[in-house]
TrEMBL record:
Domain of life from the UniProt record: Bacteria
Record's keyword annotation contains Transmembrane: yes
Record region (Disordered): 814-864
Protein name as catalogued: Glycosyltransferase RgtA/B/C/D-like domain-containing protein
Residue spans of biased composition, Acidic residues class: 854-864
Transmembrane segments: 35-58, 70-92, 104-124, 130-149, 170-189, 228-247, 259-277, 354-370, 390-410, 482-500, 507-523, 529-546, 553-571
Comp. bias regions, Pro residues: 821-853
Source organism phylogeny: Bacteria, Pseudomonadati, Myxococcota, Polyangia, Polyangiales
Length: 864
């Protein structure tokens, strides 16, 4: 066979002539070769696809569900970057920046413009599929004025970089490869809805879901957290509005948008480090971002919350501050104001960025003004910098910052009569919603005491200064056994500022970091909030690494082991708390091979919530009793956590009829709760809630571990007051009979010792008197240790267990249609006159000290 083919090729046959034409060099023959190659490849593709299709049909590939996520993320990135470059170069006339820094500022301005577009849509009711396409398309079209030229400048800048040689080349390749692996791993850990963090499941992502469902911005009165700044949620609203995706894909879209901003943080580190190195190009330096691996940890990982959106603005704020402080150029004043305003739109923790900017700008302004004044006194020539120029530039930066953040404050003013709601309720006395104790709850019960600043006065400031040196070594809270995983190279390299050349800019970044950590220490020391500013110390550490390396061989003998130790020590950090998220991603990827091709099989996320969504009408208003992870329930949700909302207030409620009226007054149509889990804040709420649900509600459905209850159509009969509860071993209460409204103490607001609520009738020692007191009770709260001593009462046949919590059980009387027995009078002390009957409601206890130990948050899932 081969001999005949060889003979045919050597002859003057058509096959021989065709092969000769393919190997000739004329233009016609070159085109023929290209056509042949293309046809051969496409033929191979078709044949290969047919073979594969027989095993796994092409239409069932997971790829088709991921492509929209990548496409929409790319559309957001290009539209934001493009319009931002136009604003930077054509409006601000800033055309001399390095391409990487230019791209960072372009993304900063463009993302703010994108969010402004979403606010506009929310005001006029345009959060619709058509707007989700038209708005970014319009921004992208405008961005084409600068985007192609910027890409060309970026390519030229990268080509101009000197490729390392020798050992440095291997170091560069290793850093780039490891950085790329970290990005892929981070993407996998952020791929599926299982990666959405606890907080994001009940307000960050549901805000965007609810805005898109309503088509506009709507008020949220049942959760104060939804009144905080929500730059991220506005972008999530866009993700929920665009066409062509499943609900589960939209949840994943939120994670993808956040991942874009995490990559923006990487770019920010590279741009800031280059500035700190006075423009010196160091290929692969961006990979230093992953020497600080805490973003892989639970609660600091990308989880569709807001910390990494805030963190994106850290590098632009410091870069703009440094460039602004050089000459107080008004263009940089606008850039600094916009960056600070964008941070304020993301989170109130933008005060870290404000502190960093002030640390750079204020000392520089004072120095230049003092120098100008000195020159004026000596009657030298007119100084380049005047007090007027500094003042005007500062006012421009402040005005732009406030104007950029204005949409949030305007929204709160319209809906809550308070621009910073739920804060400052004592200042804005007409805040809505508000009740008699809402300001106190917000000030004393809302914060977690362990994260509040420690000490007072000078002691507090010394602790704050110490945190600058210890924040990476001593976590303030942890889901990983307090293992120090923040990354400590910044702290450990600070002494290098004494010996390196070009130390001024890295020292200024370190000083800005000190200001940010100081502000963090004086506000709320939750470690994950440091993600909002961590790009600055990372960039400073990267610059210190380069300058220390440049000191010489002896310095490298110490530097290399230090960095290697950091890498080896933290190499397993992504797997401390990431296996569940990683396994979820791998399971989704395996779904194609395992022939789980239907969307119902592939996207089995939050099935119970999706079922609840189907079981309730679109206009349902659901009360979630101390249950927060409600993502997937596309209905209006009202939470009843007393310190975290002001619409539901249990303290004045005295019976089930009043509770029903209270719920109806705020439009509650359904109740959702996990039976026997997550008890209400107070015993009062626990008893009355169970009384209403078990006694009067008839329509109940179970969805996994959740109970959905339809509000009774008819109200309960008028309350027979007082509704009396016998508390035995109940946490925080003396044994005895109480009117239910006396059981209103929040665990975080325990009254001072000696001022605890007193029972209307104390629990007696006499057995007959105990039985009489039990007969007078409508309900019993029995603590888990109540069986000890004289509190071992028999409730069978008269009371039933309505709900069993970890520390106590709520029992309700079997029948309430028979007259209650009156409680026996308290026995009088010997020689004393009889004590008059106790009032129905005991005196309200005084509020506790804000430093009281908090109740365990008891998250609803292991990733809380």
């Amino acid at each position: 066979m081969l001999a005949r083919l060889r003979a045919a090729l050597n002859s003057d046959s058509p096959l021989a002539r065709f092969c000769a034409a393919l190997t000739s060099g004329s233009p016609r023959e070159r085109l023929l070769r290209n056509v042949f190659a293309a046809v051969a490849c496409l033929t191979g593709l078709v044949g290969y696809a047919l073979v594969v299709h027989a095993h796994i049909p092409v239409q069932h590939w997971l790829l088709w569900r991921l492509v929209p996520l990548w496409g929409y993320s790319l559309l957001f990135l290009l539209s934001s970057l493009g319009i931002g470059l136009v604003l930077l170069r054509r409006v601000l006339r800033l055309t001399h920046l390095p391409p990487v820094e230019e791209g960072l500022f372009g993304m900063t301005l463009g993302s703010i413009a994108f969010v402004f577009g979403m606010y506009l849509a929310g005001v006029v009711g345009w959060i619709r599929p058509w707007y989700g396409l038209v708005m970014p398309a319009a921004l992208f079209a405008g961005g084409l004025l600068e985007l192609p030229r910027w890409l060309s400048r970026l390519k030229h800048d990268l080509d101009a970089s000197t490729t390392p040689k020798g050992a440095m080349r291997w170091l560069w390749l290793t850093a780039t490869g490891v950085g790329a692996v970290c990005i892929v791993l981070l993407y996998l850990l952020s791929l599926t809805p299982d990666s959405i963090s606890f907080d994001a499941t009940w307000y960050h992502v549901p805000i965007g879901q609810d805005y898109a469902r309503a088509g506009r911005i709507v008020p949220f009165y049942g959760d104060v957290n939804r009144s905080f700044p929500h730059f991220a949620s506005m972008l999530y609203a866009w993700g929920f509005s665009v066409p062509g995706m499943l609900v589960e894909q939209r949840w994943m879209m939120a994670l993808h948008l956040e991942f874009v901003f995490v990559l923006g943080k990487v770019v920010g580190v590279a741009a800031l480090a280059r500035y700190l190195l006075q423009g010196e190009r160091v290929p692969g330096l961006w990979a230093a971002f992953f020497l600080f691996p805490s973003l892989f940890l639970q609660d600091q990982n990308p989880g569709a919350s807001a910390d990494h959106f805030l963190g994106f603005f850290a590098a632009p704020v410091l870069l703009a501050s440094m460039r602004f402080a050089e000459r107080f150029d008004r263009r940089y004043a606008v850039l600094l104001g916009a960056s600070l305003g964008g941070a304020m739109l993301a989170k109130y923790q933008a005060v870290y960025h404000l502190a960093m900017a002030a640390a750079v700008v204020v000392p520089r302004a004072a120095y230049l003004l003092a120098r100008a004044a000195s020159r004026a006194l000596k009657r030298r020539k007119r100084p380049l910098l005047s007090a007027r120029r500094v003042l005007v530039a500062g006012l421009i930066a402040s005005g732009v910052a406030l104007g950029t953040a204005a949409p949030h404050f305007i929204k709160n003013t319209i809906y809550h009569n308070n621009p910073v709601y739920p804060l400052a309720q004592r200042v804005f006395t007409r805040s809505y919603p508000q009740h008699a104790r809402s300001a106190e709850f917000m000030e004393k019960a809302y914060p977690n005491a362990p994260y509040l600043p420690k000490g007072k006065g000078l002691e507090r400031q010394l602790i704050a200064a110490g945190n600058f040196f210890t924040f990476s070594f001593s976590p303030h809270y942890s889901f990983t056994r307090y293992v120090p995983s923040m990354g400590s190279l910044f702290t450990l390299l600070l002494p290098m500022l004494l010996v390196i050349r070009g130390r001024r800019r890295p020292a200024l970044a370190a000083w800005a970091t000190f200001a940010g950590v100081w502000m963090w220490s004086n506000t709320y020391t939750a470690d994950r909030y440091l993600q909002g500013m961590l790009a600055v110390p990372i960039a400073a550490a990267a610059a210190l690494l380069v300058r220390t390396w440049q000191l010489g061989t002896v310095a490298r003998l110490g530097l290399v082991p230090l960095v290697v130790f950091q890498i080896v020590w933290s190499g397993d950090v992504p797997f401390y708390s990431g296996p569940r998220r990683l396994e979820s991603a791998l399971s989704l990827i395996r779904s194609t091979y395992e022939k789980r091709w239907s969307d119902a099989q592939r996207f089995k996320f939050r099935a119970d919530h999706r079922a609840i969504n189907q079981a309730t009408p679109p206009d349902a208003r659901i009360l979630a009793r101390n249950y927060r992870t409600t993502l997937g329930i596309e209905r209006e949700i009202i939470f009843d956590i007393q310190a975290w909302q002001s619409l539901i207030f249990y303290e004045p409620v005295r019976g089930p009829a009043e509770l029903y009226a209270h719920y109806r007054s705020v439009g509650i149509t359904h109740i959702l709760y996990p039976p026997n889990q997550r008890p209400p804040d107070t015993l009062q709420a626990a008893v009355l809630f169970n009384e209403l649900v078990h006694r009067y509600a008839t329509e109940k459905r179970r969805f996994g571990g959740l109970q959905l209850v339809t509000m009774p159509k008819e109200p309960p009969p008028a309350d027979e007051l007082p509704y009396q509860v016998l508390a035995l071993g109940a946490p925080g209460y003396t044994d005895g009979l109480y009117p239910v409204e006396a059981l209103h103490i929040l665990p975080k607001l325990q009254p001072p010792k000696g001022q605890e609520p007193k029972p209307a009738r104390a629990w007696p020692r006499d057995t007959n008197a105990q039985a009489a007191l039990l007969d007078a009770a409508d309900a019993v709260v029995l603590g888990k240790k109540a069986a000890r001593g004289s509190r071992n009462v028999k409730l069978d046949g008269v009371f039933f267990a309505a709900e069993r919590f970890k520390n106590y059980t709520v029992y309700l009387r079997q029948q309430r249609d028979t007259p209650r027995a009156e409680p026996p009078p308290e026995p009088a002390a010997a020689g004393a006159p009889p004590e008059p009957p106790a009032a129905d409601t005991p005196p309200e206890p005084e509020p506790t000290d804000p430093g009281a130990p908090p109740e365990d948050d008891d998250p609803e899932d292991p990733d809380g």
